[in-house]
Amino acid sequence: VHLGDGWTGVVGPNGAGKSTLFSLIAGELTPSEGAMILDPSRAAVTRCPQEVDASTPEIEAFAEATDGRARKWMGRLGLDPSGYARWGTLSPGERKRWQLGAALASEPNILLLDEPTNHLDGEARRMVEEALIGFHGVGLVISHDRGLLDRLTTRTLRVRGSSLRLWSAPYTVALEEWTAEEGSRLEKHASVRRQEKALRRRLADERRAAEKRSAGFQRRTRTSDPKDHDARSM
Predict the structure, then answer these.
(1) Which value, to the nearest 10 degrees, does the dihedral of the CA atoms of residues 208, 212, 214, 219 take?
(2) Residues 130, 135, 136, 141, CA torsion sign
(3) How many other CB atoms sit within 10 Å of the CB of residue 142?
(4) Three-class SS string for 106-141?
(5) CA 100/CA 59 separation, integer angstroms
(6) Are 141 and 9 in contact, with CB atoms under 8 Å apart?
(7) Do residues 138 and 4 lie in contact, with contact meaning Cβ atoms separated by under 8 Å?
(8) Beta strand 155-160 pairing with 138-142
(9) Residue 132's pLDDT is what?
(10) Rounded CA gap, 185 and 190, in Å?
């Protein structure tokens, strides 16, 4: 799988390995097979976990920064620089915006987000989406928010059965494509099964017919005249 600039939605059932994939990209795990190649090799990777209970040194540094880059992201995310001091009383949605602001202000080459719109109301969700659209590196987002995936991403990476497959489309379009593909595959499988059952029935019928002919021949042999050379030859 090759991922370039822009946003990719990472989807799959719980336990499929989405978070493990993020750990591999972030260098927290090493692959037991294959390779994870970054270009450039020292590409900066920032990962935003789903949890926002505790602050981090990165968020604190972002809150204290006064440069134009930090102020830009604070403005886009509706953050009050003095608000960080109330971290203990901030809502999960406010903490998530501080977390995202710190990540975006660090300007990483690769940004990994896990459920970034959890706990956000409508206005906060709009601000976060617009801010994320302004990110120009390689972005991957794990989310069950279909609206976010369709508006933000241009690719969908499906994690399923210990495998990855990349679809060059947002989630809803990709879902339609793989659903149609799986439906076609299931129909072909069902068709093969039907043919197999028909062949088994045909073989069983032919076997019974052969057994019936053999039994009839044996009866005729037993009842034929011992001096009938033609019958014995048959």
Answers:
(1) 160
(2) negative
(3) 21
(4) CCCCEEEEECCCCCCCHHHHHHHHHHHHCCCCEEEE
(5) 9
(6) yes
(7) yes
(8) unpaired
(9) 95
(10) 9
Q: Strand, helix or coil at 28?
A: coil
pTM of the model: 0.76
Question: Tokens for 169?
Answer: 């489309």
> Which residue type occupies 223?
T
Q: Strand 138-142's sheet: what is its strand order?
A: 45-48, 110-114, 138-142, 6-11, 155-160, 163-167
Q: What is the spatial distance between Cα 39 and Cα 131, in angstroms, rounded to a whole number?
A: 24
Beta strands in the chain, from DSSP E residues, in sequence order: 6-11, 45-48, 110-114, 138-142, 155-160, 163-167
User: Alpha-carbon distance 166 to 119, whole Å?
Assistant: 28
- Chunked mean pLDDT (size 10), the chain, 234 residues: 94 92 93 89 93 93 93 93 90 94 95 92 92 94 94 95 90 93 71 78 83 77 63 60
- Phi, psi torsion values for 222, nearest 5 degrees: -70, -30
**Alpha-carbon span 22 to 16, nearest angstrom:** 12
Q: How far apart are CA 132 and CA 79, in angstroms?
A: 15
Tell me the C-alpha to C-alpha distance, in Å, between residue 201 and each of 8, 187, 197, 207, 211: 50, 21, 6, 10, 15
Closest CA to 157 of 146, 145, 141, 144: 141
Q: How far apart are the first and last CA of the chain?
A: 69
